[in-house]
Design goal:
21% of the residues lie in helices and 33% in strands. It is α+β, with helices and mostly antiparallel strands.
């Protein structure tokens, strides 16, 4: 089955260090739904933009790489039989329903690297 990355764009990540369960409720409900459907491969929430560090050439700066209204707040990888099925899952993402957006891309290659014992 094909894999698709769903990139979540929002004003910022909902996953601040002090986020409450109530603040994460819609995100967690969507993740649970995708997992129960058997489509979830991996999911990663990112911390808020003020915790980002960017590198361009030899210059390291605080903050996200680009100045933009929306930033990548997280991403997940799903398995779906085709792009239409992946888009149907993406449409239900809370960011797409609450003023942000999502981007769906077929995964070309890769995977989760094994952790060493030294880790």
């Amino acid at each position: 089955m094909a894999q698709y990355a769903i990139l979540i764009y929002a004003d910022d990540s909902a996953h601040a260090p002090d986020a409450t369960p109530e603040e994460l409720e819609t995100c967690d409900a969507h993740a649970d739904e995708v997992e129960r459907a058997g489509a979830m491969v991996a999911a990663f929430a990112l911390t808020p933009r003020d915790m980002a560090t960017s590198v361009r050439g030899d210059v390291v700066t605080d903050g996200p790489f680009l100045e933009a209204k929306e930033v990548v707040a997280g991403f997940y990888v799903i398995e779906a039989p085709d792009l239409d099925a992946a888009l149907e899952i993406a449409r239900r993402n809370p960011a797409a329903q609450e003023g942000g957006g999502v981007e769906v891309r077929p995964v070309h290659s890769g995977g989760v690297a094994a952790q060493s014992a030294e880790g």
